[in-house]
Specification:
The protein has helices at 12-23, 58-61, 80-90, 126-139, 160-165, 184-196, 214-225, 242-246, 257-263, 272-284, and strands at 4-8, 27-32, 45-48, 67-70, 97-103, 114-115, 145-150, 152-154, 171-173, 181-183, 203-206, 232-234, 253-254. The chain has a seven-stranded parallel sheet, with helices on both faces. Helix 1 links the parallel strand 1 and strand 2 (27-32). The chain has a domain at 4-155 and 181-209 and 253-268: Rossmann fold, CATH 3.40.50. The longest helix has 14 residues, at 126-139. It is an alpha/beta fold.
């Protein structure tokens, strides 16, 4: 498998996919707000893009593109890529896969029940509603769209180990509440597997095998570090920002069977335990 991958939004997840795609023989281009900031593999061609600054020369930027990843979150005014470059994408003669990174927040609150891709989305929060609207717009675009509903992303530099080492970790306890999560490398594996087996119109849940209470994850990370975990705090009385509190408004156990059955994905980090153990030398270093 090879081709030209174009990433709208070379953020945390897209940079990992870009690195893996380069290893697989792809050429890669992508957008950033400020190309001069760097932080990306020098083999990746960087182009400026946002709603106010669309691609200056779409014909050249998208030349020979076979795969597109959209990881830019929607704004209040909608999706900037759809608004600015839908017709440029529709004109691509070789495009065979477009991946849109969404979120499991589109399901809303399931009261801790298990949700598959067949579960009717009922987002209760504005960010979930906005994502669902954007998913639907992409799926109605006429492009070979594949939607990936991601759980909470963790990886190097973004994990409970790092928060503990930085003194920012907390153990908020809301009885019965669980979060789902996914290692960034496993996201890249799912995306590459889908690129190899395109099925336009499909929706995939992308999460690991074990939804877990967040306080348990922090306690395990502290054990790995040989540290005392921070004290438990009752969610009802904890001092949390409105944004942080909103993450506890919904609870669901997300099922990941489809990525295994259809794409043959075998997670490198099936639970947070394997993921954090592998990250330990990285964060200590």
């Amino acid at each position: 498998m090879s081709g030209t991958l174009f990433c709208f939004g070379l953020g945390y997840t897209a940079r990992v996919l870009a690195a893996r795609a380069l290893e697989a023989g792809f050429s890669v281009r992508g957008t950033v707000r400020e190309p001069a900031r760097g932080g990306t593999d020098p083999r990746v061609e960087l182009l400026p893009f946002d709603r106010r600054r669309p691609l200056a020369d779409p014909g050249t930027a998208l030349r020979d593109v076979t795969h597109v990843l959209v990881s830019i979150p929607p704004e209040e005014a909608g999706d900037p890529v759809l608004e600015r470059h839908l017709f440029d994408l529709l004109a691509l003669p070789r495009l065979r896969w477009l991946g849109y990174l969404s979120t499991t927040a589109v399901y809303g609150d399931a009261g801790g029940a298990t949700v598959t891709e067949e579960f009717p989305p009922r987002p209760g929060l504005e960010r979930g509603r906005r994502r669902l609207e954007t998913e639907e717009a992409w799926r109605d675009s006429g492009l070979p769209v594949h939607v990936f509903r991601l759980a909470g992303i963790y990886g190097p530099g973004r994990n409970p180990l790092r928060k503990l080492l930085d003194g920012r970790a907390r153990r908020i306890v809301k009885p019965g509440h669980v979060f789902c999560r996914i290692h960034v490398e496993d996201i890249a594996s799912v995306l590459l597997a889908s690129m190899a087996r395109p099925r336009p119109g499909v929706v995939y849940n992308v999460c690991d095998d074990e939804p877990a209470p967040p306080q348990d994850v922090v306690a395990f990370a502290a054990e790995l570090l040989g540290m005392e975990p921070p004290p438990e705090e009752d969610f009802a009385t904890a001092d949390l920002s409105p944004m942080a509190r909103s993450f506890y408004a919904e609870s669901r156990r997300v099922a990941n069977g489809l990525i295994k059955r259809e794409l043959g994905v075998r997670l490198a980090y099936p639970t947070y335990r394997e993921g954090l153990a592998a990250l330990l030398p990285v964060e200590r270093g």
